[in-house]
Amino acid sequence: MALAAGAIVGTWFWDVTHDRLTVDDALAHAFGLEPAAVQGELRLDQVVSTVHPDDRAGLEQAIAAALRRGGRYSHQYRTRGNDGQYRWIEAVGRVDLDADGRAVGFPGVLIDIDERRRLESERDQAQVLLRSFVEAAPGVVYAKDRQGRLLIGNRGTTELIGLPPERYIGRTDAELLSDPVQAAAVMAADERVMANGRSEQLEEEVSFPDGRRAVWLSTKAPLRDADGSVVGLVGTSLDITDRKAAAAEHQEIEERYRLAARATNDAIWDWRMSDGHVVWNEALCALFGHALTETTAQWWLDNIHPDDRQRVDDHIHAVIASETSSWTGEYRFRRADGSYAVVLDRGTVLRGASGEPHRMIGAMLDLTSRKAAEAALAESEERLRFATEAGDMGFWDVDLVHDVLIWPPRTKAMFGISAHVDVSLQDFYGGLHPDDRAETSAAFAAAADPALRALYDVEYRTVGKEDGVVRWVAAKGRGLFEGDRCVRVLGVAIEVTARRLADARLKELNEHLEARVLEEVMERTRAEEALRQSQKMEAVGQLTGGIAHDFNNMLATVIGPLDLLAARLGDQDPRAKRYIDMAMDGARRAAQLTQRLLSFSRQQPLQPVPVDANRLVAGMSDLLVHSLGSSVRLETVLAADLWSTFADANQLENVILNLAVNARDAMPGGGRLTVETANCAQEDASAGSVPAGDYVLIAVADNGSGMSPEVMAKAFEPFFTTKKVGQGTGLGLSQVYGFVKQSAGHVRIESGIGRGTTVKLYLPRLMAVVDPLPETTSDDAFEVVGGQELVLVVEDEPGVRQFSIDALTELGYPVLAADGAAAALKLLDAHPGVALLFTDVVMPEVNGRELADEALRRRPDLKVLFATGYSRNALVQDGMLDPSVQMIGKPFTVDELAMRVRAALG
Question: What's this model's pTM, rounded to 2 decimal places?
């Protein structure tokens, strides 16, 4: 039967004792023996003679070894068949030994393994070819599995990582690369290629172990198995650092040339002499009205005034034909409106290695504008002279090089000197009032100092040299410098004696008014500062709320899939479970951080109930004691007949606990923490105090280190903390602030260095009678189980939508899914069996609340469960959640989803 099946190609039996070898026809055929030889006695050497010469010695050694040891025998070799071709066979047999250990019998069979050996040879050749190709490929060549672990890498990969292959094969970039940002970027790109199943070419920044940095052009493609499924990634990378640097340098040079051409007021031209093509900058249009950027050299020559054209043409070509490179010419150039401008044109010839001219670059300056500017300057100076005379101002000019002072008669009069008397710089210093001489002299010295070059702007008194009259003079001026030397100081002076006397009288009259105005201004400044602080906190709150919403959506696609993955793996892979637990812990802490951001920004949903603050504080005493530790003593002072307030009890407990932990940290050596309640009737609100009204006061006080005024001013700002790095997020008091404001209350801090800190929470008194909510017992808790009801999932984020589908399916629910309201309503109409609408709140075009309203209009019995990353939407009224609304916050786990779905369906 084995022979008929084709697995065995022949059998033999060798009577070792009598040295008789018996074979069947199939074996004889495999060894190329004549059929007649099979009928007689065969010798072993006859059979061995048909074995391939390269395999013969090995076969004889294998037979000898089997005869010595006995037992199982197996050996592979090639035999020549009747067709003259060699084929690979495997001989499998058994050597029987007698009691003395001598071989007596040796039966066995032959198995055809030629095809198997051929495939193995092809496989080995392919592997050698692959290894040779990978090693010979330039740059980095590698392959990774679906988890990003390296499968193979060439020499470039080894150089980049800085480790031998046996130390990096099987490890991820996050484990190998020293730069975590670089590793994260590489793995993110790999995951994107494997996820979308498409090849990508991208540039990546890499760091070598020796500190070098480079830019790689990477090509990445998905690695697929025989079924076409993506099982990993293959990639190659080439170092393009030098190419990038060269391109950047070329671009920088081009950009410099472009910016220089745009920045100048001259008309820049670039003349290519091979074809006469000329490129102009934008100044050609700005200066002369020609809206052109490219012309011919003949066009330029045609627009030169006919009387200047030949001269310019001859001159410029003479320079080109000579060995010089610079050319300058002055001529009249025609504007677009037909008028002519006088221009100064300059150019430089760019020559090749042999001196042949290639290009000429130059700049054309419109001298008409310069002449107009010079005329305008002369006119301006004349106007200044008239103005100084008309304004009764005195001009002064000090020539420091020649020690000359120039004063017109008006300036001399300010120093009590007659108009015809010559003056010097000594007359200036001698005429200054003794009380003003030092300050005025210092100001003049600063204006003449090359290092300072200050503005000379002083008011001083003069004592008339001839009349002895004291006058007030206001003077302004500047120094004129040549290099690092001041050559002149000049300016104007005006007598202000009458103004100074009037100012003195006015000051005397307004002394009391100024005091009152100063007080009012200070009060207004305090109010404006409070308003700015409030606006700043509101703006930061809106920003943090938006960030938290987007971050919650991202965390939903992390926590949920990790939860599903942990359930799938179970305990079969402890290492994977540990990694998942680490990731879940980080994601949960990130979710807690977003909740604090939402609390600060007043965008978290509150579920307020009537709260007895005395009962709440007493009920959490044990929790506070355990949180504070043995070195801090807790005291509670609870007021009798305390009013009720309307607040979210769970959030209020978190606020008190947060304040207690902050107080504990402020008392590292131990101390006393007091939690006090009281009724507070605020009758009148002065600036900075709590507005009028009835409040339930909860005060948390410690006798710790206290806060400085600067710290108190920033205490409620998000991310502000005085703790060491890693010991605080800076969101604790921000969360307190957000909750109290969302609850229509107020919070105040009283503190001082060494005097401890007291934080007072003012929550509005509950005036209406509201039935308290029934306490939840353990019997009311929902089991974390699934069901059979049909659920319609509506979510515009693909990742969150897929996780919701997978989680509900895992729980046993049949699921339909839609990415928006339009598709959801079609599915709802087509499937009457939908029992629950599970929809996101914030969606484009039609939000979750609007979708639910329309769905309930069509199906009044439909149950609805909302999901949201934050609650600033139609679900919240005045910052509080409608008690009838079923909602789950993002991110959520499978267990949380199961509980909320059962609650909604129930």
Answer: 0.31
